[in-house]
Amino acid sequence: MALSGNALSKNVLSAGVSREIITPKVGSYLFGYHDHLVSHSVNDQLTVTALALESGNVKTVLLSATVCLIDTDLADKIRARIGKALGIPAQNIILSATHTHTGPRTDGFSKWGTIDTEYCDNIFIPKCVRAARTAMENRLAAIAGVGTTESMVGINRRQLLPDGCVILGQNPNEVYDSTMTVIAFNGTDKKPLANLVHIGAHCTAAGICGEISRDWAGAMTDRLEAETGAVSMFFNGTAADIAPRIPNGRSSGKSIQYAMELGGLAGIDAVRAYKSIKTFREESVSLASGNIELAFLPPIPQDSIPARIEATKNSTWKGWNFEKYSLEQLNALYKTGDPGPQSLQYTQTIVRIGDTVIIPYPFETCTEIGLRLRSYSQFAHTLLFSCTNGSNSYLPAQSQLCRGGYEVESFRWFRPRQLPDNTDTLLIEQNLKLLEKLRDS
Asked: Of 191, 236, 297, 319, which is least surrounded by CB within 10 A?
């Protein structure tokens, strides 16, 4: 039986969960490797899972969509529609992509193809709204518990060659955050309701196989569901520089079997984290919101662009010239008489559940940033959600910029105006101010 907010006392946590199938049709384009990858079959159904939480006057919905990335404008549209449907601020909606590279085009990038607007309009958007609405309607009085374990599902992918060049591969000598966290919600009758799993690693174990799949994270949540009886959802952490730990020694596989095998191992880890939970208790939910602003560097002068483009002719990453892409975008803006916005801005909302905080990042975020945030935080569990509430390319740590590599080139040249080298620190500082608000709430 679903309980409305009026049926619950002010401080009682209520939780509801719902899931919708969002699998695209076979033959549609997949997103995450190149612009002409077409699906030929479905290995496992793609889903969007919504967890609705309320306590006191606070309502929020966390959605996990098994797609690669969600364009920022598209994410804003979905969050606004959900907010309108539920009568809550759009900023209270947390919409996250699990970052599977065997899903549809819900983001657009010239190297990977344009957004599949037909899919988004007819499947993705309405299913996200429906899942959120049903989850809110199905809320029950709930208790929550948190467990952690070590998982080796991922490995740093910034492989360093003898000449100092960074390639995508596997590098066991570089940083990896092995902490897997499970937040479990039970009804007050102790019946399992929902599980949230958090760890960071690319969902690229299947590789360019042409099969639609949630990749390893799907097999992991399936196992946790089977063992606990609760709907389970995955939120990717600091995955930008983390590959799945697959036996070919590379950052992606070429077989769906890799994804299923790694997901089975990750599922064992998730069950172990769940079973480590010692106490379920009543918790409150609170939010802290504020404006994030990252000032862009001054634009490259227009008269220097042709020479800059010419100088980058041989500067490619697997045939892709990042700097040329950025310069061409900027040149197009100059021709309109407007060199673009002066800053990257968005509204940030951090969710607190008891002594756990969830910090959304609309970037593919590198591991050091999440570890730093956790070390500065006064909360027991500080979870950074990457690929959440939009898509703004990679966010490396400043310490990585000197070495270059795919993540660094993407960060520098994804947009016509560049972000400063210390963007990681600027974001940490602004998020810590919001954490202070939650600490005092």
From this structure: 319
Q: Which tokens hold the place of 335?
A: 């021709």
The sign of the torsion formed by the CA atoms of 6, 9, 11, 13 equals negative
DSSP 418: P
Any idea what DSSP says for residue 32? Answer: S
pLDDT of amino acid 111: 80
Predicted confidence at residue 401, as pLDDT, reads 98
Q: Which residues of 86-121 are buried (b: 16+ CB within 10 A; e: fewer)?
A: bebbbbbbbbbbbbbbbbbbbbbbeebbebbeebbe
Q: What's the confidence (pLDDT) of residue 318?
A: 66
Determine the residue type at 172: P
**C-alpha span between 271 and 276 (Å, rounded):** 9
Q: Are 78 and 46 in contact (CB under 8 A)?
A: no
Q: Give the per-residue pLDDT at 2.
A: 34
Say if CB 282 and CB 143 are below 8 A apart. yes
What pLDDT was estimated at residue 1?
25
**Please, are residues 129 and 122 in contact by the beta-carbon 8 Å criterion?**
no
Q: How far apart are CA 269 and CA 279, in angstroms?
A: 19
* Amino acid 6: pLDDT: 36
Helix/strand/coil (H, E, C) string of 188-235?
CCCCEEEEEEEECCCECCCCCCCEECCCHHHHHHHHHHHHHCCEEEEE
- Given CA atoms 297, 302, 303, 305 in this order, what sign does their dihedral have? positive
Q: How far is CA 116 from CA 40, 125, 128, in A?
A: 17, 12, 16
| CB-based contact 142:281 (threshold 8 Å) | no
